[in-house]
Amino acid sequence: MPRVLVDAAAVPADRGALIRYVDGLVAALHQAGTDLVVVCQRAEAERYQRLAPSARVVPGPVAITNRAARLAWEQTGVPLLARQTGAEAIHAPYYSMPLRSGLPTVVTVHDVTWFTEPEQHSPARAAFFRSATRTAVRHARRVIVPSKATRDELVRVLSADPTRIDVAYHGVDLAQFHPPSEDEVRRAAIRCGLRGQPYVAFLGNLDPRKNVPNLIRGFAAAVKRLETPPALVLGGGVHEDDVDAACREVEATVRVIRPGYLRAPDLPGFLGGALVVAFPSRGEGFGMPVLEAMACGAAVLTSHRTSLPEVGGDAVAYTEPDADSIADALGELLASSDRRRQLQEAGRARAREFTWEASAEAHLNSYQRAIE
Known about the structure:
The chain has 372 residues and is an alpha/beta fold. The chain has helices at 16-31, 45-51, 67-84, 113-116, 123-139, 148-158, 182-191, 212-223, 241-250, 267-272, 288-295, 308-312, 323-335, 337-351, 356-371; strands at residues 3-7, 35-40, 56-59, 89-92, 105-108, 142-145, 165-167, 199-203, 231-235, 256-260, 276-279, 300-303, 317-319. The mean pLDDT is 93.
């Protein structure tokens, strides 16, 4: 089995689903017996050693907590470490890669909305990730993507060579994401200040692509005639201006709660305790919140865009991303406890199909192809 250096320092600490990707992958690669070198931020070294006890974990310099310094170190420090540790390949799990490593490099490209929906991102971020993606497509020995939809978009938008792209679905940690106990539901409700009120949940960053303003408007329309409407709880992310504006539009008639980032132990209770988990994104490379919500036994509503049907299959309800469609689909789910129970059962079964063991196997196959 080849020795592979995984650059875990590349993933920003505030990118929740991406951190779970790298953590889940590293742990599964360790379980598969991979000869693994993990480069990480100093503050994360102990955690990665626990996740992969047999791996050689190398903390990077203190300075790489700064993004610019990390990108510079990626070009020089990572290749040097790879040579010093005898790595046969480098895996860059977050778009950017060292250009002159002298080793086969595999890059994970998570989504292509930087090209297809640039208006949903800040101009500076979109420009950076477009450049990094083009570089990966041109120079990486293999490109890993988390869905067939992302592979197809890379081929369509950048004329990428499909024979150099490997699809590796993410997994879900069923020990962390599980149908919650009553106590877990109660603790999450207290954390969100719900005071016993039923709720619809959203979990993720509140950037424009996640379509939260239309979720807020659609939710308000769906519950406006209910005698005792549920709350809408927006977990995670930062408060974008358009989210604030949408809240002001509806605040006289509905309750929107924004608890901010939730602790990992709170997530099963938060997701599994919701009437519905709504994730009507305009597009995803994979859709980790949908998978994690299904694993927690939630009835999930998502959009029929990009990769989301690959994750949800027939186990979730779908909507178009406009507010009127969200209102109709959400209203139907809130009106039917039988439909919600059906989705809860189907979602749990569907989530068990996505394992980190299978993801690690797909990554290992990609590493081997890069080296050959």
